[in-house]
Design goal:
The chain contains 6 helices and 7 strands, in the order E-H-H-H-H-H-E-E-E-E-H-E-E. It has about 200 residues and is of the alpha+beta class. It has one domain. A 4-stranded mixed beta sheet has the order 1-7-6-3. A 3-stranded antiparallel beta sheet has the order 2-4-5.
Length: about 200
C-alpha cells in the first residue's frame, strides 16, 4: 500500500528519539503512509537489511466492517512485524494506477513500518497477541475519517504516550494521525500523517 508520509517540520529544535527514523522516510508503501495511502510507512534512515523477512506471497486485502477493527488489525500487523501484509491490506484504497505489490516491496516502505514498530514497541509493554490493540469509538462522517494516535491503545497505553517515551524538547506540536477510508462497504487504513 502506499504510506506516503506528510511531514511538517514546524519546530526543528524538538527532538524525538524514534521520530527521526519515522520522519525521515514515511513515504512508503504506495500512498498510505505518513500522509499517503494505507500501510507501512517508509523511513529512509532505517536500513532495508534490518527489516524482518517478509512473506513472498501477496495476500488478498481484506477490509473490516468498522474503522476501529481495520485500524486495530493494521497496528497489530505492524507490531507483529508483518509489514508487507499491513501494506498489502490497504490495496483497495490505493490511488488508481499504483501497484500494491510493487509499493509494498519498496525498502523505504518497509523501513517506515519498522520505524512505527520501534516507536510503539517499548520495554515493559506487551505486544500482540499478549498485549491488546484497542481503538476508541470514532464517529465516521462519510467514507474518510482521521483517527489520532491518542485514540489507539496498546496494552492499555496510547500510542502517543509510547511514541513520546524518551522524547526531549517541545513535543506539543507533534502529532500522528491515521487516515481511514471506506471502500465497497469495508474500512481500510489509507495512510497516516506525521507532524512535528
Amino acid at each position: 500500500m502506499t504510506i506516503a508520509p506528510t511531514v511538517h517540520a514546524r519546530r526543528p529544535q524538538a527532538r524525538w528519539l524514534v521520530l527521526p527514523a519515522v520522519v525521515m522516510g514515511l513515504t512508503a508503501c504506495g500512498s498510505a503512509g505518513v500522509s499517503g495511502s494505507a500501510v507501512p510507512v517508509t523511513s529512509p534512515s532505517a536500513s532495508p537489511a534490518t527489516a524482518p523477512p517478509q512473506t513472498s506471497q501477496a495476500q488478498p486485502a481484506s477490509g473490516a466492517e468498522t474503522l476501529q477493527t481495520a485500524l486495530e488489525h493494521w497496528v497489530t500487523q505492524i507490531l507483529q512485524e508483518q509489514y508487507t501484509e499491513a501494506c498489502l491490506s490497504s490495496a483497495p484504497v490505493l490511488p488508481a494506477g499504483q501497484d500494491a505489490e510493487t509499493l509494498c516491496k519498496n525498502p523505504e516502505a518497509l523501513a517506515s513500518a519498522k520505524s512505527l514498530h520501534e516507536a510503539w514497541a517499548k520495554p515493559g509493554v506487551k505486544l500482540p497477541p499478549q498485549g491488546k490493540v484497542e481503538v476508541t469509538k470514532v464517529a465516521a462522517k462519510g467514507n474518510e475519517v482521521t483517527v489520532p494516535d491518542t485514540a489507539v491503545k496498546l496494552d492499555g497505553r496510547t500510542l502517543r504516550s509510547l511514541e513520546l517515551i524518551g522524547a526531549t524538547g517541545d513535543t506539543d506540536s507533534f502529532s500522528l494521525t491515521f487516515k481511514m477510508e471506506k471502500h465497497e462497504g469495508a474500512w481500510y487504513v489509507q495512510g497516516f500523517d506525521l507532524k512535528l
